[in-house]
Amino acid sequence: AGAVSFGIYNITGQEVRRYEIQAPAAGAYKLSWNGANDDAVQLPSGLYFVQLRAKGHIATHKLLLLR
Length: 67
Known about the structure:
The protein contains no helices and 4 strands. The chain is mainly β. It has a 4-stranded antiparallel sheet, with no helix packed on it.
């Protein structure tokens, strides 16, 4: 339980989208990304990274956006 943030970054390391949620309890959750940045502009196909931060833990994974 606690605050969780997800940042989506482009290949150059610029953050293009951020999600902040308050998870009510520990467990599995699902987050969908529609391929848009924080200004609702659709991003081009390419390699992106998602970084999860929760209670001092950080995990980063690759995403491939195909249009």
